[in-house]
Design goal:
Its main location: plastid. Helix content is 70%, strand content 5%. The chain is mainly alpha-helical.
């Protein structure tokens, strides 16, 4: 099967070719191209399906043979410089190819329905193909230069897709914010690449790793300089994978279409940073201080993302901060040397988060028919509630994704997240505590999102009544007084009407016929949701310890063996050990779900006056703490606020100072000499009147003054 690897260039080339064809036809023949819009969509899906089959074939060959293949062609050849381009196929590459193509084809099928009424439908598929081709080219790159080229292409495509609806000021600002933030990380990445080229004299991965280790062993390298270069390299993944402190672009990126949010958060842009750390793992592993920095950055990001997600009212932004938190888990795993766990969580999280985002898109698509096209309303979970009654398939699939992301067995993320938490405890107790607490917060905010979106009653129609307002916590309020909702039906179905009762004095009945209600999405959207539930349910078993209990028996270890054998990280363990470790993580997960059920669940285990009791607790003891949590989440941990003060306002203040310095000091000195010379010339011109008598008078006066001074 050697000939298959020789044609691996087809994988990124075909989507790139389709993108060029769509773009050029849209530029030169816009009317005919738009009239054939569905043909272009079908062609895009068909091409990516072929690429997906090719990727699965390569993965199967890697699983059987466990061999690494590399094909290089000279690009720039000189006596001192030899740049090559080509392709590298190893287990990491094959896994990423399957991940990108499977998620990509599902997103394309979903987009055919979701974007069907958009005027930019054809342009969207051109961007989507280019985005997929860029990411496929990135994971196939055999050297740092080629990775950097595709790295920038991924950033450019994200800029185009986040700002797809560029006529909206919020979308235009969001894509600029993402682009500028990533430029900071990309500049550091470029400096790091050049630094390691100066150290090793090569961009090729194999040569670079070998020479760098030799230089370290022989003490022929300045360790501080090497660590600085590695830190600069790490700056690229910090920005691309939304790690603290360059994470601020990720929630604003939700201004793009929902299919792109799914693709960015699951298999492309944010996955690129994790992939680069995994690809350069031998380099970072040789520098323990850098590994510690990576682990702590990941831990801080995981905890920060989870705390900010606690009270988000925007459905997509809540999921965005969830992505940020889970990426922190992956970075933490790589930082503590748990290579397999970090990569495993990248795989399981990709399918779970794609399912959640596409499910949120189904909800948003349905809510738009009620509240109109307004992201502040159709994405606001305070306007939702009870959607499972109207959208059962979307509700069930979203619940499955929620179970997985929370780490509940036997869903996908349970198997990967539990390993990360266990390895964190083994590495350092501080990191273990952070990962453990984050797991509890994850289960709380994810079930908060689910309960407020799919359970209870539909609140959007209630908000149409002028005296009712909806708080960010999902409560409906009337003059700051809680409302008690009593279903007119004993079966709790929002069937005909319900009653709003304020101290049993005022009653309002809202009849079903007067209001609009959401409906289930079409078959294309539901098909993609059902398809994504399959890997969400079963892909976690790839890394599960099978009953044999043999070291490295799980399928993921088998596939990654060529890489893991060099890192001394072959998974070992058995079911009993795994089960004991799982009890620790499941305890905090169940506790988080329990708290979310009490506060937001449709059925409370407490009496009906729970809200009054809860208000009493807030007033007596917990009010400052709850207010702090709400403000921390609503204002995004105040980080954007401080960035605005330090960078935006600070830059403007610095510009004003430089303007003052330039106008009054630099220009002042030059202009001062000019004014002095001009005034001197202006004053001397009156001495030259053209009258001889005046000249004689001046001459005699000067002679007289000279003689007088000589005498005295």
């Amino acid at each position: 099967m050697e000939f298959i690897y020789q044609f691996v260039w087809i994988i990124p080339f075909l989507p790139f070719l389709i993108s060029i064809l769509i773009g050029s036809n849209l530029l030169f023949f816009p009317k005919s191209t738009k009239s054939l819009r569905y043909i272009w969509a079908i062609l895009s899906i068909l091409v990516l399906f072929i690429v997906m089959i090719f990727s699965f074939t390569i993965l199967w060959q890697q699983f059987i043979n466990n061999t690494i293949h590399q094909y290089l062609w000279s690009w720039i050849f000189d006596k001192q410089v030899d740049f090559k381009i080509g392709f590298l196929i190893d287990p990491l590459t094959s896994i990423m190819l399957v991940l990108i193509t499977t998620v990509g084809i599902v997103v394309m099928i979903y987009s055919d329905s979701y974007m069907s009424h958009d005027q930019g439908y054809v342009r969207f598929f051109a961007y989507l193909n280019l985005f997929t081709a860029s990411m496929l080219g990135l994971v196939l790159s055999p050297n740092l230069i080629q990775i950097y080229i595709f790295w920038e292409l991924v950033g450019m495509c994200s800029y185009l897709l986040i700002g797809f609806w560029f006529t909206r000021p919020s979308a235009a600002n969001a894509c600029q914010k993402a682009f500028i933030t990533n430029r900071i990380g990309d500049f550091g990445l470029l400096l790091g690449i050049l630094g390691f080229y100066w150290i090793t004299g090569s961009f090729e991965f194999e040569i670079l790793f070998k020479r760098f280790n030799e230089l370290l062993i022989n003490n022929e390298i300045n360790l501080y300089f090497a660590s600085s270069c590695a830190l600069l390299l790490f700056l690229g993944p910090i920005a691309k994978s939304a790690q603290f402190p360059l994470h601020v672009w990720l929630p604003d990126a939700m201004e793009g279409p929902t299919p792109i949010s799914a693709l960015i958060h699951a298999a492309t842009m944010v996955a690129a940073g994790i992939y680069l750390i995994a690809r350069l793992f031998p380099l970072f592993q040789a520098l323990p201080y850098i590994m510690d920095i990576i682990s702590w950055i990941g831990a801080i990001t995981a905890l920060l993302g989870a705390t900010i997600a606690l009270a988000q009212k925007d459905l997509k932004k809540g999921l965005a901060y969830s992505t940020m938190s889970q990426l922190g888990y992956m970075m933490l795993a790589l930082g503590i040397g748990s290579y397999q766990a970090g990569l495993f969580h990248l795989i399981t999280h990709a399918y779970s988060k794609a399912l959640l985002f596409l499910g949120s898109g189904s909800v948003i698509h349905s809510m738009e028919s009620i509240v109109g096209y307004s992201p502040t309303k159709c994405q606001n979970i305070a306007f939702m509630g009870g959607l499972r009654k109207f959208m059962p398939i979307t509700g069930i699939t979203f619940l499955i994704g929620t179970f997985s992301l929370c780490g509940i067995p036997p869903f996908a993320c349970f198997w990967s997240k539990d390993v990360i938490i266990t390895d964190s405890w083994s590495y350092f107790s501080g990191l273990g505590w952070i990962s453990w607490i984050t797991a509890g917060l994850t289960s709380f905010y994810m079930f908060r999102i689910y309960f407020l979106t799919f359970e209870g009653y539909l609140r959007v129609n209630l908000n149409k009544v002028s005296f009712i307002s909806v708080s960010i916590w999902g409560d409906l309020q009337l003059n700051n007084k809680k409302l008690e909702f009593i279903s007119k039906k004993s079966n709790n179905k929002f069937d005909k009407s319900f009653e709003i009762n304020e101290h049993n004095n005022k009653k309002e009945f809202l009849e079903k016929g007067n209001y609009l209600y959401p409906k289930e999405s079409d078959n294309k959207i539901l098909f993609t949701l059902i398809i994504l539930t399959l890997p969400t349910l079963f892909i976690g078993f790839l890394g599960a310890p099978f009953p044999q209990g043999q070291a490295g028996f799980d399928l993921l270890s088998q596939c990654l063996y060529p890489i893991l054998k060099n890192y001394s990280e072959i998974t070992s363990g058995n079911w009993s050990e795994f089960g004991l470790n799982a009890i620790n993580s499941l305890s905090i997960v169940i506790f988080g779900i329990f708290i979310a059920s009490i506060l937001y669940g449709p059925i409370s285990i407490f009496p009906q006056n729970l809200e009054k009791n809860f208000e009493f607790l807030l007033q007596k003891n917990l009010n400052p703490f709850i207010s702090f949590i709400y403000n921390w989440s609503y204002f995004r941990g105040y980080i954007d606020f401080y960035y605005d003060i330090v960078f935006t306002k600070g830059t403007r203040l610095l510009a004003q100072f430089i303007l003052f310095f330039d106008e009054w000091l630099i220009d002042g000195v030059v202009n001062g000499f000019g004014i002095l010379i001009s005034s001197g010339g202006e004053s001397t011109k009156y001495l030259e009147g053209g009258r001889i008598s005046s000249y004689l008078f001046g001459l005699i006066l000067a002679i007289f003054l000279l003689l007088s001074s000589a005498m005295f």
